[in-house]
Amino acid sequence: MTSRPPRESLAQILGGRRGAIDASIPPAAFVLGWLIAGQSIAWGAGVAIGVAVLLGAYRVARGDKARAVVVSLAAVIAAALIALHTGRAEDFFLIQLLSNVASALLWAASIVVRWPLLGVVVGLVIGQKTRWRRDPALLRAYSRASWVWVFLQYTLRVVVYGSLWWSGQVVALGIARTVLSWPLVAVTVAVSGWVLYRTLPPEHPGLRVVEENGDPSDSEPDGLPRT
């Protein structure tokens, strides 16, 4: 009798540490430049954009996709322009705040309509596309695990960023932007992975195997079976 291979962790499947770390560097550079130049938004914006350009050039030289680098650079430039336009240094973080509001709403809506985004992301990464929706156990597990992303990552960021932005705490925003990047992503992936595999039946073969033994409509949006 052959033993079943151990299930892959969600962290092994998703990865993504480098992107999260890279995203936290330009905001930290903005705060540093802003402080060193006597709270000059122009200097902070210039330092952030310069660091983003250097980081992007390094990533392209390392073989990363140019499109992803351009999108990251555009986000930094947009954040800098907003801060320069309003004259409020904390507004450099406004895009990040609003994007997390949008993400929380989008992830919650995806669960309600039974297209949990965690399943969509994992399905694309492992080449499964949307076949996982044919497996009620996977649909239920992805739905429950997606709530972890809604509350532990996006809602938490909205609360922290929102309160600091409202009170104009620029340095604290820079620190929070770093702490709530990769460290929070790592915790979210770990917790959602635990929820995911706890929800799957013990006999289920794992995320890469779809057991088409039911209909997606057999599960409620929150992952609970219908009664």
TrEMBL record:
Entry superkingdom: Bacteria
Tell whether Lipid biosynthesis is among the UniProt keywords: no
Q: Where is this region: Disordered?
A: 207-227
- Residue ranges annotated as compositionally biased, kind Acidic residues, are 212-221
Which InterPro entries does the UniProt record give? UCP010219
So where does this one cross the membrane? 43-61, 68-85, 105-126, 147-167, 179-197
Keywords on record: Membrane, Transmembrane, Transmembrane helix
Q: What Pfam families does this protein's entry cite? A: DUF3159
**Name of protein:** DUF3159 domain-containing protein
